Amino acid sequence: MENAGTVNLEKNDVKMPSVSNPSNKPAVKSSTKMKEAFLYGFLGLSAVITVGFLLWLIAYVIIKGMGHIDISGLIAPIVTTIYMVGIGLGISVPIGIGTAIYLNEYSNGGKFVQGIRFATECLAAVPSILFGLFGMMFFVRMLGFSWSILSGGLTISIMILPTVVKTTEEALKTVPQSYREGSLALGASKFATIRKVVLPSATPGILTGVVFSTGRIIGETAAIYLTAGTVFQIPQSVMSSGRTLSVHLYMLAKEGISFEQAYGAAIVLLAVVLALNFLSYFIASRIGKTK
Questions:
Q1: Same domain for 142 and 276?
Q2: Burial of residue 6, with CB atoms counted within 10 A of its CB: 0-12 exposed, 13-18 middle, 19 or more buried
Q3: CB atoms within 10 A of CB 39
Q4: What domain range is 37 assigned to?
Q5: Is there a contact between 149 and 242 (Cβ–Cβ < 8 Å)?
Q6: For residue 148, with 0-12 CB atoms within 10 Å meaning exposed, 13-18 middle and 19 or more buried, which class applies?
Q7: Angle made by CA atoms 152, 268, 262, in degrees to the nearest 5
Q8: What is the rounded (10 degree) CA torsion for 36, 42, 44, 48?
Q9: What is the band of 26 on the pLDDT scale with cuts at 50, 70, 90?
Q10: Do 190 and 76 belong to one domain?
């Protein structure tokens, strides 16, 4: 009996392993929810601030220049800007898209491809004033193109080339590999697959890059100022000097001719850029729906 009692005492003295308090779980969930709420709030606040800055900028320019818009006086800068956009995109877009297709579809890596990507990234980081100095020394003086639309367009095409290459390459990467494999399995050639399958699928991304490049051309001042000149006239040819909208705005403000007219030109400039962005989104959405 004593032995049985001793056994019972020993069993009673045994300590059971501690079990975690289930009441801690709600505290952990509450902490996670607080972190998520803080993160969502921060992201939402960032978005509101970004949109607020845009609306504030647009409203400020419109209020300052609404009564000073003179479209007839901006014909020459608008025509010069169209010339510049046409030359810049006409040169950079085919070269940039071709480079991106080679890098993403045909190359197998290696030092040569790494060198191209490194050169593209370095070119994208060069300030626009350096492009302007290069264009002035090379196109204006060395090649003898003088201050002209051609000199400005060639300079601008070099400046926006990295943007076209990078955006096109990223757009091509978004095309699923199964699209390529399915086309090749059906007997299509590599070139036909790229032309009829890959490029149509990547068109919205490529178009976005083209629109970004167009916006940069329209808003560029330093590179065009040093290569195309500042002559206020409708250019008769690509060898004529001219003044784009952004350069015209800069000259109005810099020389103190009329800040009111400068704000009027800024409204036209903003309207063109916003119209291009809305047009690109519309075309991209239409292309996406037709797939």
A1: yes
A2: exposed
A3: 10
A4: 2-6+21-65
A5: yes
A6: buried
A7: 80
A8: 180
A9: low
A10: yes
> Do 231 and 239 touch, CB atoms closer than 8 A?
no
Is position 234 within any domain? yes
Say how many CA atoms lie within 13 Å of 283 toward its Cβ. 16
- d(CA 92, CA 88) in angstroms, rounded, equals 6
pLDDT (tens digit per residue) in 56-82: 988 988 888 887 888 888 899 999 999
The 10s digit of each residue's pLDDT in 154-203 is 999 999 999 999 999 999 999 998 988 898 888 888 889 998 889 988 88
The total domain count for the chain is 2
The verdict on pTM exceeding 0.90 is: no
Rounded Cα distance, 237 and 54, in Å: 37
Same domain, 92 and 171: yes
Q: Is 16 inside any structural domain? A: no
Q: Are residues 113 and 185 in the same domain?
A: yes
Question: For position 133, which CATH number holds?
Answer: 1.10.3720.10
Query: What pLDDT does 289 receive?
Result: 63
83 plus 147 within the same structural domain: yes
Mean of the per-residue pLDDT values of the chain: 84
| pLDDT reported for residue 2 | 46
